[in-house]
Write the structure tokens for this entry.
Amino acid sequence: MASFFVTGTDTEVGKTRVSLGLMRALRNQGSSVIGMKPIASGCHRTSAGLRNEDAELIRGEGTSEIPYELLNPFAFEEAVAPHAAAEKAGVSIDIDRIRSAYKSLYGLAEHIVIEGAGGWRVPLSASSSLSDLVAELNIPVVLVVGLRLGCINHALLTAESILNDNRTLAGWVANQITEDYPFQESSMRVLTSKIAAPLLGEVPYIENLEVQNISRCLDLSLLK
Ligand SMILES: Nc1ncnc2c1ncn2[C@@H]1O[C@H](COP(=O)(O)OP(=O)(O)OP(=O)(O)O)[C@@H](O)[C@H]1O
Ligand SMILES: [Mg+2]
């Protein structure tokens, strides 16, 4: 059983795409897998309650059906940072509740892939951040680097924080989120030499990216 927490250098860098690709790659090698998006802001109302697009995609990629509330215990309507969305909803994000959802899912599949929200040090409340959740779950981290101007600094700071927090950085994925990033080659050289974890793959810029194509870019045998 191995779980992975997928974080990113920022919001909108491809965490959901890479989480789905990772789930598909695990499935392709014959493993069972389910996913979680424990905290999601930007949800739409349905008759069953608030639902989030990332969470539903992740749910759809799983090998077993799981109750939405376990996959996404904290769903907020406002598309803002988790602590702000929680404040607006009058809710406090309780890490214990996420841990107990994770425990209920544990054992339902060989792997659980958990997509974070925003980046590594995103606050959940005045006294906790997303990285505290990962410490509580005690699982390795996969870092998605969205290739664009400024990504080296964001990537190195994030990798450094993950390691300083005594978490395992199982690998990182370079995701080409813009059609044309002129410094890609030199950025990749710096990132590969400075991130102390294996590069699991490079995902090219493809509009309407298919999950199967993302999974083909990832080499799970490199996971640390
Ligand atoms: N390699 C790529 N090629 C083309 N488009 C991409 C690529 N990766 C991501 N995108 C697009 O960029 C957007 C952001 O991707 P994604 O939703 O995976 O990011 P995220 O980090 O999960 O965002 P959030 O912080 O909102 O959860 C999406 O519209 C997605 O389709
Ligand atoms: Mg996402």
Summary: The CA atoms of residues 59 and 151 lie 29 Å apart.
